[in-house]
Specification:
Layout: H1 17-22, E1 25-28, E2 31-34, H2 39-46, H3 49-54, H4 64-82, H5 89-99, E3 102-109, E4 112-119, H6 125-140, E5 145-147, E6 156-158, H7 171-187
Antiparallel strand pairs: 1-2, 3-4, 5-6
């Protein structure tokens, strides 16, 4: 099982776990990238602070089974975010198929009540937790789950701005490109 001490190469990190899983694919000047394409990249994602915290600080195996379950979860999330206002039956099924592999169990610990995540197989844990996080976002503010406003960008974000008007995955990337294109169009109209 690979472990990773490599830095996370993605242009957008720090989003909630479900969005972070979606953002394991990105496009830049060098082309299309998929962090989950290899076991090494999967290990990079599993070892990010966000994922480790979501998994209770426990390392997750970066094996083939984990990677395949992450691919399934990411595909389910892709389908679900494509039409949040009116999810398709296949999107609902895809999300529920991932969620069927785990559950929350209420427990009493010496320090008080708690909740444990139980999964059919440890390889399901990262995928299940990411999709469960998507349900949390849907219950909280589904209109804040957005794709970047740049049609050439495949990244998503959860808009936490005060007035909910964020349009870009990042102002330094896609936002600046859009501003530069508008400026060019204004000054070079023929």
């Amino acid at each position: 099982m690979p472990s990773s001490a490599e830095p996370d190469p993605r242009p957008l990190t720090g989003e909630p776990l479900a969005i972070d899983l979606l953002n394991t694919r990105w496009i830049d000047a060098a082309g299309r990238h998929d962090l989950l394409h290899s076991l090494k990249g999967t290990a990079v994602w599993l070892n990010t602070p966000l994922v480790r915290e979501a998994l209770g600080g426990n390392p997750a195996p970066a094996g083939h089974d984990t990677r395949e379950r992450l691919h399934q979860a990411r595909a389910a999330l892709d389908e679900a975010v494509a039409n949040l206002a009116n999810p398709t039956p296949s999107a609902v099924t895809a999300v529920n198929d991932v969620l069927a592999h785990g559950r929350l169990r209420q427990v009493l610990r010496p320090d008080g009540p708690g909740t444990l995540v139980e999964v059919d197989d440890p390889a399901w844990l990262p995928a299940w937790v990411a999709v469960a996080d998507f349900l949390r976002l849907l219950a909280d503010r589904p209109e804040r789950i957005r794709a970047c406003g740049n049609p050439q960008c495949v990244l998503h974000f959860y808009d936490v701005s005060k007035n909910g008007t964020r349009r870009w995955c990042s102002m330094s990337g896609c936002g600046n490109r859009a501003k530069a294109q508008r400026h060019y169009a204004r000054h070079h109209q023929g």
